[in-house]
Design a protein that fits this description.
It contains seven helices and no strands. By secondary structure, it is mainly alpha-helical. The radius of gyration is 33 Å and the shape is extended.
């Protein structure tokens, strides 16, 4: 092999022990050994010894002091949703938000029909969240303190907290024009539907 000087334009550097030939049968193994890595990188291989691994105690059967092998199951007072990947319901589960209404039916459908690996499972849960918001909003009008769209959607605050300067230089500039429509349109459409429903009831009563 003729040694080429690195000064020659368009030619590779000279072949030296530090720069071995590549793409040939003479190419050495460039993977450093564990001893070389340990000498070059401080702390390399610190977790090779199982005694030094923080997770090793979890991998061993150590005495825990528990009086049971399987915890006592929490009573299931009503059917709880469970992913199809699980054989049975976990021993302990939450009961703060029981399923109710149409949103609850959609959530139960998502868990009973589709696996968590399917997009339909999560899309159904997202739809259930939107339905849940709508149901709570409609239900709030039957209470002394119904939802206030001007304060709870943040539309009123847009006029006071630097509405122009706060948006300068942000990456979601295009989406900012859609935010008022997304937040305000449901209330406007709902108000129009309520007005039309009241007018229809008044006309029916006059007849």
């Amino acid at each position: 092999m003729t040694e080429q000087t690195p000064d020659a334009p368009g030619t590779p550097d000279a072949v030296t022990p530090e720069k071995p030939p590549v793409y040939t049968a003479a190419k050495p193994n460039l993977t450093p050994s564990a001893d070389e890595l340990r000498a070059r990188i401080p702390g390399w291989g610190a977790d090779l010894d199982r005694k030094d691994r923080p997770a090793v105690p979890r991998e061993q059967s150590l005495p825990t002091g528990a009086h049971w092998d399987f915890p006592e199951r929490q009573p299931e007072t009503w059917p709880r949703e469970r992913s199809v990947e699980h054989r049975f319901l976990t021993p302990v589960f939450g009961t703060a938000q029981p399923l109710q209404g149409l949103a609850g039916a959609l959530r139960r459908l998502a868990y009973e029909r589709w696996s968590e690996g399917r997009a339909a499972h999560w899309l159904t849960l997202l739809a259930a969240d939107r339905v849940d918001v709508l149901e709570h909003t409609v239900r709030s009008f039957a209470t002394p303190r119904p939802d206030n769209p001007l304060t709870e959607t943040g539309i009123a605050s847009e006029l006071h907290h630097h509405p122009v300067s706060a948006r300068h230089g942000r990456v979601d500039t295009v989406h900012q024009a859609v935010d008022p429509v997304v937040n305000g349109a449901p209330w406007v459409l709902g108000g129009l539907a309520a007005v039309l429903a009241v007018r229809a009831l008044v006309r029916a009563a006059r007849r």
